[in-house]
Specification:
The chain crosses the membrane at residues 20-39, 45-66, 78-99, 105-122, 134-154, 187-204, 211-230, 236-253, 260-283, 383-406, 418-440, 446-462. Pfam families: Wzy_C (PF04932). The protein is mainly α. The chain has helices at residues 2-35, 45-66, 77-93, 100-117, 125-156, 187-207, 211-230, 234-255, 260-295, 311-316, 325-338, 349-356, 364-367, 378-407, 417-433, 446-480, and strands at residues 159-163, 169-175, 179-182. Strand 1 (159-163) and strand 2 (169-175) form a beta hairpin. Helix 3 runs antiparallel to helix 14, helix 5 crosses helix 7 and helix 11 (325-338) crosses helix 14. The protein is globular, with a radius of gyration of 24 Å.
Length: 481
């Protein structure tokens, strides 16, 4: 009797979980997109989206624990469990520097690893495809609204400071130092998110035959690219070029009928050249236009330098091409050397530095700018935060994931080639940009969400194709016997 009840309960869970997963993933994504919107960040409405994300995430977590056997076998999950364990140990070892913020992010880490990345790989592919498409459309629609508003502000050369209810102050629109912030709280993060949105829009254009939807997606591709360009985010532009060029190259690698490798390489070079050259052309054209408008009598543009440029950053840092990153990375190494085994905990970096390394660059007293609580590089973040243990686990996960992708590469079915390519290239885009901004680990932002969610979809898709090949091979062996 108990066995029947247990099976009935698990069967009911299997029907409920897919819908709950979609609701959770949409709520979590919307929360993060609003949290990194300069107008909403720090406002009371964020408490509503936070509660919704935590509520549905908690329900989903409980249901996954009930059916843990369906998830614990997901590829490379043991590496992530080990990373969570290392994170907890580091938090306890460094408890004197603070525990509350470390505990807060511990919950988000569980969400990212356990709810976004991990899949029940036996779920129906069509069901997962629909979920992925809905998440992609939610991202694209919200980003397009953000970036259209930002573009209007750009053309009006309009910008202002906004103080939120919790005291946070953000720049909205154009910044007087020569870059577009739009509605993004951080233009670097916004540029990377837009690069992922651009890729997903390209993919959906290939999938959809309805003209009005393809027209909308073409418009969104344009506005994602325009924000990447006018935000003057070098990390965002580099990541966007690499990710988009790689996607087009992979597409032609499979679709070209002759000389596939040559066609693929040419496509990569052309796309990279057009995106890079287009960025220079657009910025020069905009600057020329704004200078012309500034000279017109009666124009309401009063800025002395209404141009897009990073010259202000270069002047402020004394010509440092890395925009302080080299100095910040040096501090990360200093923290790692002082606590090499477990690290100090990401949320404890500033308190630890003030206590143990008062002369290090990331402290405001030494750089005359502010306290840098992130290392602008996921490797440096991990070294400082979780030491040798954390970086070894991260390296193990990366290597195991690469081995899995290579091992299952030839198993990809032709009809899944494009979706797997875009998922891989989105993760590549975020991965490349994580060498210059803090994301993927420790920072709960849209790009971290997208990395783990899209990597989960990719691993699920490739594992399903790999299992199909293994089943066929098994049947062939049985016949031969």
């Amino acid at each position: 009797m108990e066995t029947k009840m247990k099976k009935s309960l698990q069967g009911g869970m299997k029907n409920i979980v897919p819908n709950l997963e979609l609701v959770f993933k949409v709520c979590y994504l919307v929360h993060l997109l609003m949290a990194f919107n300069a107008y909403f960040a720090g406002e009371r409405i964020m408490n509503v989206t936070l509660v919704l994300a935590l509520f549905f995430g908690g329900l989903m977590g409980i249901m996954r624990l009930i059916r843990i056997k369906d998830y614990i076998t997901f590829p490379n999950i043991l590496w992530l469990i080990a990373f969570i364990g290392s994170y907890a140990i580091t938090a306890l070892v460094n408890i004197r520097y603070g525990l509350f913020e470390s505990a807060q992010y511990f919950v988000w880490l569980l969400f990212q690893f356990g709810l976004l990345y991990t899949f029940d790989w036996k779920r129906e592919r069509e069901e997962v495809r629909k979920e992925f498409h809905i998440v992609a459309y939610v991202l694209i629609v919200i980003l397009t609204i953000y970036n259209i508003i930002g573009f209007i502000m750009l053309m009006q050369n309009h910008g202002f400071w906004h103080e939120a209810a919790d005291g946070q102050i953000h720049r909205i629109g154009m910044a007087e130092w020569g870059r577009l912030h739009g509605l993004h709280a951080d233009p670097n993060y916004g540029a990377v998110t837009s690069a992922v949105g651009l890729l997903l829009a390209l993919y959906l254009m290939m999938r959809n035959k309805k003209i009005w939807i393809r027209l909308f997606l073409a418009i969104t591709v344009l506005f994602q690219y325009l924000f990447i360009v006018f935000s003057v985010s070098r990390s965002g532009l580099i990541a966007a070029i690499c990710g988009t060029a790689a996607f087009v190259g992979l597409y032609y690698l499979k679709k070209a009928k002759k000389y596939t490798m040559i066609v693929s390489i040419i496509a990569v070079v052309v796309v990279a050249g057009v995106m890079f050259g287009g960025s220079k052309l657009l910025i020069n054209s905009y600057n020329t236009y704004m200078e012309y408008r500034a000279e017109e009598p009666g124009d309401d543009i009063t800025k002395k330098e209404p141009t897009i440029s990073r010259e202000g950053d270069m002047e402020a840092t004394g010509g440092d091409i890395s925009n302080r990153r080299f100095s910040i990375w040096k501090s990360a190494i200093e923290i790692f050397i002082s606590s090499p085994v477990t690290g100090v905990g990401f949320r404890n970096i500033i308190p630890y530095a003030k206590d143990q390394l008062p002369g290090t660059y990331i402290l405001k007293v030494n750089n005359q700018y502010g306290d840098f609580d992130a290392m602008h590089n996921v490797i440096m973040d991990t070294l400082a935060s979780q030491g040798i243990i954390g970086i070894a686990i991260l390296a193990g996960f990366i290597v195991s994931t690469i081995v899995f992708l290579i091992k299952n590469f030839n198993a990809i079915r032709e009809e899944h080639w494009v979706v797997n390519s875009v998922l891989f290239c989105c993760c590549l885009t975020i991965g490349i940009s994580s060498m210059f901004v803090s994301q993927i680990l420790y920072v709960n932002n849209p790009n971290t969400y997208l990395f783990w969610a899209l990597l989960g979809y990719l691993i699920y898709s490739m594992k399903r194709d790999g299992e199909r090949i293994n089943r066929k091979a098994g049947k062939t062996k049985e016949v031969l016997k």
